[in-house]
Amino acid sequence: MSKVKVGLVQMSCVKDKQANLNKAIEKIREAAADGAQIVCLQELFTSLYFCDVEDYDNFDLAEPIPGPSTDALSTVAKELGVVIIASLFEKRAEGLYHNTTAVLDADGSYLGKYRKMHIPDDPAYYEKFYFTPGDLGYKVFKTKFGKIGVLICWDQWYPEASRITALMGAEILFYPTAIGWATDQDEETNKDQYNAWQIIQRSHAVANGVPVVSVNRVGYEQDGAMKFWGGSFVTNAQGKLLYLASHDKEEVKVVELDLKESDYFRKHWPFLRDRRIETYGPITKRFIDED
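The line above is the sequence of Carbon-nitrogen hydrolase; the predicted C-alpha cells follow.
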C-alpha cells in the first residue's frame, strides 16, 4: 500500500475518564467517516494531565493493557476498519506503572504496546513520580495499513529514538504528546518553545526519510495555569508540513500520506546510506570526557 490516510485527534479533556474515552471514540468515528485508516490519539487522552502534581490518588487512573480501554477501542477499530493508536496510563503490577501506547489493528486485534522510554521531571511535569521507564525497547507495529513506529511525548526530543525506530522499518512515526505553555509566560517564549518542539520532530522526518504525525492535547488545565498548545501536525518524508492544527481548538483531521515518497527522498538525500555507523560507538557514553 503506497498511500495511507492518517487521522489525528486533538482534543481537550475533563476529569471524567469515561467521558474522555467516549469523546475520543466519537472523534475516531468522525475521522473514519472522513476516510482515516490510522487514527492517533493524544498522550494520556482518558484524563486531565495529572502529572502536574505528585498525588498518590492519581495512580487510581491507571489500568492494565490490554484492559478496559483497549477492549472498548478494539470494538471500535473492528467496526470501523481502522488502526487506533491509544496512549494510556498502564498499571503493570502493584506499584509498577508505565506511560504506554497500545496499538489496535483494523480488525480489532491488539498488536502490542510501546512503553515511553524518556521520562521528564520538570515543574508541572512530574512524570518520574508516576512512570517507570519503558523496558520493551523501541517498537514497530505491522498494521493492515503499513508498519508504524510509535514514540511518546518526551521521546520526541531524542533523535536516537526516532532513528532506531526508523531503522526497524517504521514507515510513519507517530508521537502522542501532551505539552503546553505556562500561562504566565510571555508570547515570545511561547513561540520559541513551540517552534523548537515542531522543528525537532520535523528534523526526524528529514533525517530518516519518513513522515511524522504528532498529536497534542489542547485547552486550559491545572486551574488555568497551563495552556496545552495543540499545534498538532503532519509532515511528509522531507519534513514538509502537510497540516498544522490550531493552538486553541479541538480538531479532527485526516491527511493522506504517500509512503513511496520515502524511497524517493532517501535516494535523493541518502542520509541513511551515508551513515558512518562504525564511528558512532561513543554515542553510548553519557558525555565524552576523560572521566
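Note on the example: The radius of gyration is 18 Å. The helical segments are 17-33, 68-80, 159-167, 187-208, 261-268.
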